Amino acid sequence: MRPVPSAGFLALLDDIATLLDDVAAMSKLSVKKTAGVLGDDLALNAKQVTGVLAERELPVVWAVTKGSLLNKLILVPLAMLVSAFLPWLIQPLLMLGGLYLCYEGFHKIAQRWLGGHDEAKPRLEELLASGRDLRDYERQKIRGAIRTDFVLSAEIVVLILGVVREAPLPAQIVTLSLVAAGMTLLVYGLVAAIVKIDDLGGWLLAGAHEGRRGAWRRALGRALLAAAPRLMKTLSVLGTAAMFLVGGGILLHGLPWLHHAVAERLHGLPFTSGLQALAGGFVGLLAGGLLVLGERVFSRPHARSA
């Protein structure tokens, strides 16, 4: 006669199955909530790690990836402590994160309209011409990328925490850890692929021979070389738009009176969810503009006195 599993063992299996179901559902919702920040994280970090020698791009990306994982290792326990002891602080942190995203998005637009240029490539050429060691330059790029990642990682973790805060503690821990680590590996895997697109195009062109296969390689190589800068520009535009949509959406939902007013105005219209997202983007654009304007107004007296 076969032994019957104990009730305790079956209860444990049921608890594990329930936990996995909760984690799967919350992970899906967390990825959806943080998709905008993820796009901006991808665009911003791809730009951060460019401007180094081609043969050093992947080592630099790997160094930033390790720094990003360390950021998550710091931020996830902090988020859990906030959730356990200061749960009322989650919504204000979400609002601050939303304001930061709106500010950064409008700051990018202001820089674009007021001019500016990418100094990474000229600086690298100057360093190469001077014959100086590039290790300090690489370390500076890595530190800057990790600092940027810390801010965006904090926003991602707070957004995930907003999704899982009502769940049991084990589900919160597993979801936060899995989504945070998974996003890090996804973002920097894509960054590594993006920064090497032009190298792949050059390799295809260099190895092309005569004949139909060689023509195919040359066509693909030229397409990749042409697509690389356009991809970076597209990611930058989409990332900036995502900052307003995500940040403004957080602000809109964090202000019940405004959220209800918008919902009443849009009730019954087609594509209501899309219109609400656009309304959140408008709120984000307005909030970011006010923050940048305030920064410029308050910084002028200090600039004059200096």
Write the layout of secondary structure elements.
Elements: H1 7-33, H2 35-48, H3 57-85, H4 90-114, H5 120-130, H6 135-164, H7 169-195, H8 197-206, H9 212-254, H10 256-266, H11 272-305
Helix pairs in contact: 1-6, 1-7, 2-6, 2-7, 2-9, 3-6, 3-7, 4-6, 4-9, 4-11, 6-7, 8-9, 9-11
Order of helices and strands: HHHHHHHHHHH
Shape: globular
Question: How would you sum up the major sheet?
Answer: none
Q: Structural class per helix/strand content?
A: mainly alpha
Count of discrete domains? 1
Instruction: Report the total helices.
Output: 11
Mean pLDDT: 75
Please report which band the strand proportion falls in: under 5%, 5-15%, 15-25%, 25-35%, 35-45% or over 45%.
Answer: under 5%
Residue windows where pLDDT falls under 50 for at least 5 positions: 116-122
What is the radius of gyration computed over CA atoms, rounded to a whole number of angstroms? 24 Å
Question: What is the straight-line distance between the termini?
Answer: 89 Å
Classify the helix fraction into a percent range.
over 70%
**What is the count of β-strands?**
0
Provide an overview of this structure:
It is a single chain. The protein has helices spanning 7-33, 35-48, 57-85, 90-114, 120-130, 135-164, 169-195, 197-206, 212-254, 256-266, 272-305. The protein is mostly helical. The chain has one domain. It is globular and about 65 Å long.
